[in-house]
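Re: folding output
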Amino acid sequence: MSVTINYSGELTVLTCWCGMRHAVPTELRNHQLRCHDDGRDVPVIYCPLGHSHMPAGESKAERLERQLQAQRDRAARFAAQRDQAEASARAYKGAATRARNRAKVGVCPCCNRTFSQLARHMASQHPDFDPAAVET
């Protein structure tokens, strides 16, 4: 005895890992794929031999979560670089202020001695001194 089923919907043919080809309603397959992409629980479709058929790979939700985490990591790296640059700028400003204050009271930046006429001492004793080349 054979039974004939009339179906007016659209079918999608799937091939199981065991090689069995079978048809499922397109609406069911599309629903399964949407659930997979949204990160929800995926309804399982079974082949006639009882094997489950699930979409493979990374879902859209997982991909977006991974991209979001990558952007957060990137923002954290930029914030750390900014903080480091600000700390470096503060250090250079402090060093420049110390050098300027020492020069005001007549301390030679080369020999660390005090002179009442620092400009004359620098011209006579250190003529090739370049203040830009001094490392702080």
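--- second protein (sequence, then structure) ---
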Amino acid sequence: MGQPPRATGIPAFRTEQVGSYWDRQTQVDVVGLNWSQQTVLLGEARWTSRPLGVQALDELRAKASAVLPAPDWHVHYALFSRSGFTEQLTVQANSENVCLVGLEDIVEDA
């Protein structure tokens, strides 16, 4: 039996629509909407050889206004990384309830 997932900050709402968003200036890899609760999950996936830092979260937050159906929606953030996360991002994510998902949270060794 595998170990339990290490992902943190997983939002507790049901998505009614899932996809991605892009226009000429903005791309968001994961968008999960709950229209009835006016709640959205915005996620960014990075396949780099270095751990993600706080800058990745800042960049995702900067994209939120382009994606939100209205400015009063509640936003959750998620970062997906092949190479994990810096300690600074991990501490910030834990205090702000940001979901961090590493490759080891998704793939289990055979």
